[in-house]
Amino acid sequence: MDELALLCNVYAQGPGTLRVLHRAGIRTLENACAASDWALAELLESTPSEARRFVREARLLLENRDERQLQAEDSASEAWSA
């Protein structure tokens, strides 16, 4: 699943918000994290504080993705050395 779509669903924004973000050029979690609070709030039709929560959730998903990638790399190197 697209990580930004997952964020929109987890954050209870849904596919409509995903379309709005895509139209604004926000297509990845990294793009969402780089957006200003005010611009994101306008896109989400919310407040800057709610936009900051949205970005916090995006960062958590990014951290989890990075952690999963590290675990996969560790598993691959263990299999290679065995």
Features:
single chain, 5 helices, elongated, 82 residues, mainly alpha, DNA polymerase, domain 1
Your description of this structure?
- The protein has 82 residues and is an all-alpha fold.
- The protein has one domain (3-81): DNA polymerase, domain 1, CATH 1.10.150.
- It is 80% helix and 0% strand.
- The chain is built from 5 helices and no strands.
- The longest helix has 34 residues, at 48-81.
- It starts with a helix and ends with a helix.
- The mean pLDDT is 86.
Which fold name is given in CATH as the topology?
DNA polymerase, domain 1
Q: Please, how many domains?
A: 1
Helix proportion range: over 70%
Approximate shape: elongated
**CATH C-level class:** Mainly Alpha
CATH architecture: Orthogonal Bundle
- Give the amount of beta strand, in percent: under 5%
- Assembly type: single chain
Class inferred from helices and paired strands: mainly alpha
Instruction: Look at the structure and give the mean pLDDT.
Output: 86
- Alpha carbon gyration radius: 15 Å
Characterize the biggest β-sheet.
none
Order of helices and strands: HHHHH
Q: Uncertain spans, ≥5 residues at pLDDT below 50?
A: none
What's the helix count? 5
The termini sit apart by 32 Å
